Amino acid sequence: MANFSIGTMAELATALSVAPQEFDEIVRNRNRYYRIIQIQKIDGGTRTLNVPQDRLKSLQDGIRRRLLDRVKQLECVHGGVRGRSVITNSMPHLHKDVVFKLDIKDFFPTVGPRAVNSIFRVLGFGPEASQVLVEATTLDGQLPQGAPTSVALANLAMYRVDRRLLRLARLHGFDYTRFVDDLTLSGTSRLLGFRRLICRIVEEDGFTVNPKKLQTMLAGSRQIVTGIVVNDKPNLPKEQRDEIRRLVVKLASSEHSGVRIATVRGKLAWLAYVNPAKACRLQSRAPIIASEPSNFSQKVTPAREA
Length: 306
Hints:
The chain is 43% helix and 14% strand.
């Protein structure tokens, strides 16, 4: 890992190109800068995001870009890492006899100030600088979902778990990847005998496995990793492909009222990211889409994902 050798708040402010007085004022009043947003989850529930605004957002962006992005993440980590995505997270699990998935319950709330302080100390920050960074990146005793620093810090909090699961995977010929709080291992049928051990490794480091989201997917059934079907070549689930096809056909017909071009274009872009050939064929069926300046012949390069 990187070693920053930054001990004081003044040195930290210099590294982030922020005046020490401004840094102190933002941190002391950080609660004022958060905006609460409720978003709908796929399962029908809601997720609460605490999204930083104005000067706090700028400060956290600086911490992420100038400090956290310089820390090299393990090869198994795909969420929040530049150049990696749900596609790179799913690719190692193609053509496997067994795919085993688990989810960490309350991932961000589990990573508290003590864990964040330990991360910064390991990275070479002194006690004063570490404490200031903890105050700048946590809210109400946890990592706030919606802050630009939270995924990178959560990834680092999982470092020991990732190292142990990587060693286990290499020793037994399995593959292991993690996309934020979604962990996936795949391999031969021998993997079935390691599921309890895998869960124990996660929980020994203070995290909780969500029992409702444990999944064992055999080759004879559909295997999905971070939304991508991995039985054969990467693809979207059939339900999503059928929905996109239905929308494109309706948009191409004379009766396409109620179908937003922007919505269909967005769904086609997602399909193109996973299966560009299929997206091109569908796009050609709707001239109103094809006439727009879009190109689905190549995979879309995703923005930084979380």
